[in-house]
Fold Isoprenyl transferase.
Amino acid sequence: MFTFRRKKESTQVALEKIPKHIGVIMDGNGRWAKKRMQPRIMGHKAGMDALQAVTIKASELGVKVLTVYAFSTENWTRPVDEVKFIMSLPVEFFDKYVPELHKNNVKVQMIGDTSRLPKDTLDALNRARELTKRNSGLILNFALNYGGRAEIVSAVKQIAQDVLDARFNTGDITEELIANYLNTATLPYLYRDPDLIIRTSGELRLSNFLPWQSAYSEFYFTDVLWPDFKEKGLVAAIEEYNRRHRRFGGV
Ligand code: FPP
């Protein structure tokens, strides 16, 4: 039987505040591969190793939710072969990575419009979700075919329909009600909004990732490419988060 061994990096940390929900834009896989004169898909493969390392470390540190931007609604414009490859990743993910996550009490969930995903991709994710659904540890939340504006459009349509159906009036629409119509409503109530959003590879954009939920998030940008980020990168991001003072509009 194939067993997967991950090289552990030693990262001793004394961190006071652990962000409960971390969102990650895993960018730079393509450039990582190019630097090594390898095809882009090798970067995505290495990106999965990095994701596994970061997930286990985050779970050890007591993070509750890790939402990872694995495929955006805009990523369909990539070359067909690359899209096909990215869509095959969850299948490999289930065989090679989920057993270790399951042992670590990690629960797999997803957000996004999964109706457009190929059947094999969705099946693999559903198997991961089913296997881990009773786990009580970190939630690894895949944003797949996710787009923040599309999520808001869909919420507005449902809210409008509920008003037409006289379930409530426009006067009842609050921030809290809107949040209940977003994809992140499937997360535990206290951890729906990310405390910290990380983007790797030097890009300084949110790219349609959790625009509503990130209203009060801290942002951490690093030039490190996603496959190189790993445990050390996560700890550096949390150390920086510890140096920030979140005021939520207060003093
Ligand atoms: C961005 O790098 C990365 C992606 C679009 C895909 C990320 C996916 C993974 C790391 C694996 C996810 C795992 C599962 C199970 C779905 P890029 O290609 O935009 O890099 P570049 O900016 O250097 O070209």
